[in-house]
Amino acid sequence: MSPHPDDEILSGALAMRLQQENRCQVFNLAVTLGSKSSRKMPRRRELAKALDFLNWQGQVLPEKWSDKEKKVVAHFKKTQPTLIIAPHSADYHPTHTRTAQLTIKAMAKAKLTATVAWAEYWATQAKPNLLMGVSRETLTRQIHALTFHKGEIERNPYHLLLPSWQMDSVRRGSEWLAGQGAVAAPFVFGQLYRLERWENGKALRKSIQPTIMGPNSDLSDLLA
After folding, report:
1. Residue 128 to residues 114, 140, 169, 177, Cα–Cα distance (Å)
2. Which of 71, 79, 127, 204 is spaced 20 to 30 Å from 112 by Cα?
């Protein structure tokens, strides 16, 4: 669930690893094409090139939010995704927070049973429970994929800033998930998520224990 074209990559290290290591099929729902009318068609073309590079499928949702919800509900019912990646509800940017709300409503209406990985980009989330290591190969693939979003990286070099952001995620995640004063995670790059289990359209109250998974860890349990 990407609020804008390029968010599928910025929050997508988990999706990339699941595709590469677990042979998962990845489907990107682009919630919007951004707010600038002049950029909508170029962003659609840039997104298509990025998805083709990643070998992901995708769909751009309609303009009206009521129509977006109908499309997402229908998609969830049809595909029954095992895992959904979406921005967390306090991710600062209004389209990111609204995408989180859209995801919650759609999962409830579709009565979905799945794992949700709430991602962060514009604002940290209070209680992440997964620090996932990112290999240099996966990071390189992310950076390469971001270059297809030419208009966005021309105004802000997200691709060049990605390594430092992932390094800071490891710094924060090591302290938050392993405990204060613990030895830092033994990898350089990583991304933070909050995993949440949903059954029949409702989030389970039982929380998932904080976990640190290295770049070579088996991610299969996330799909169980």
Report:
1. 18, 24, 11, 8
2. 127
* SS3 of residue 194 by DSSP: strand
Q: How many CB atoms lie within 10 A of CB 12?
A: 25
Residue 213: name the closest of 126, 140, 130, 127 by CA. Answer: 130
pLDDT in tens, 10-56: 999 999 999 999 999 999 999 999 989 999 999 999 999 999 999 99
User: Could you tell me which residues are beta bridge partners of residue 91?
Assistant: none
The span from the CA of 116 to the CA of 195, in Å, is 6
Percent of the chain with pLDDT over 90: 91
pLDDT score recorded for residue 208: 85
DSSP helix, strand, coil percent of the chain (3-state; round to 5)? 45, 15, 35
pLDDT greater than 80 at residue 143 = yes
Q: In the chain, count H helices and then E strands.
A: 8, 8
pLDDT, tens digit, for every residue of 87-111? 999 999 999 999 999 999 999 999 9
Task: Phi first, then psi: give them for residue 163, nearest 5 degrees.
Answer: -60, -45
C-alpha distance from residue 189 to each of 23, 73, 79, 184 (Å): 22, 34, 32, 12
Annotate 139-206 with DSSP letters as a single string.
HHHHHHHHTT-HHHHHHS-HHHHHHHHHHHHHHHHHHHHH-TTPPPPS-S-EEEEEEEEEETTEE-SS
